[in-house]
Amino acid sequence: MIVHTLNKPPSMPAAQQALAALGEKDVLVLIEEGVHAVLHPSWNGWQLGERLVLLQEDLDARGLASLARSKALPSITVDEFVALTVSCDNIIAWY
Q1: pLDDT tens-place string over residues 11-70
Q2: Which residues pair with 93 in a beta bridge?
């Protein structure tokens, strides 16, 4: 499994590049400005289901946590993110 991190919103080319590069077992973690995806309900990334998660601290920092919760979007804490990265084979950052 590869963990991909995306720190850009869905409107940026890096978001589509990250989606295209994901393998069947890979996970996409939205960080920093990437959590703005909660404002784009039609974004293709939501089709990943449980393989797409948002970093809770970045949601909190941008005032998007309640919106993400209301949409039942999966999020992880920094501690959970660290555990995920330790358990993966590789990490790819999209920016």
Answers
A1: 999 999 999 999 999 999 999 999 999 999 999 999 999 999 999 999 999 999 999 999
A2: 5
15, HSE (Cβ side, Cα atoms, 13 Å):
20
The encoded tokens of residue 4 equal 């991909």
Residues in Cβ contact with 91 at an 8 Å cutoff, skipping those fewer than 6 apart: 2, 3, 4, 5, 85
Beta strands in the chain (DSSP E): 2-6, 27-30, 52-55, 75-76, 90-94
Residue 8's pLDDT is: 97
pTM score > 0.90 for this model? yes
Residue ranges and CATH numbers for the domains of the chain are 2-94 (3.40.1260.10)
